[in-house]
Amino acid sequence: MTVGLRISLPDNLAIVRFGKYVTEADYEVALELYATHPNARHGQNLLCDMRQTIDGTVDMAKRLAMQVTMDQVLGSGPLPRTILYLVPNAKVGDLIATCVALWQPNPYVTGTIIKTEAEAISRLGLQTPTLDDLIPIETYD
After folding, report:
1. Model confidence at 129: pLDDT above 90
2. What pLDDT, on a 0 to 100 scale, did the predictor assign at position 1?
3. Which of 19, 43, 51, 93 lies in disulfide reach of 2, CB 3.0 to 4.6 Å?
């Protein structure tokens, strides 16, 4: 399990980078890292960078239980938040599509799966040619 976090306050953006294989344990670590990070802010956009991810599992019972906490941490208002899932791998995209759909009832969060870094940069209005240029990533194993 490898999860990385970077927060860029000037860009109002948190980036969570996932490793090659993703499970609920990775989601839990990512959520805890973000929730306890001193630079986390309400309304801060979130990019889940899954470019390195090639497979994973989703235990929907665990994921549904975790959604309550995710709504409290990421989905509390009054500021809207965009969560982009950067997933170029179609198999992984299919895997997490149900997780992304769990955000639909939340009026403060828009969750979307995208396939390219260029689309992420454009949708987030970033002024950088590559996500790696923002700030160094802090990795937690």
Report:
1. no
2. 62
3. 19
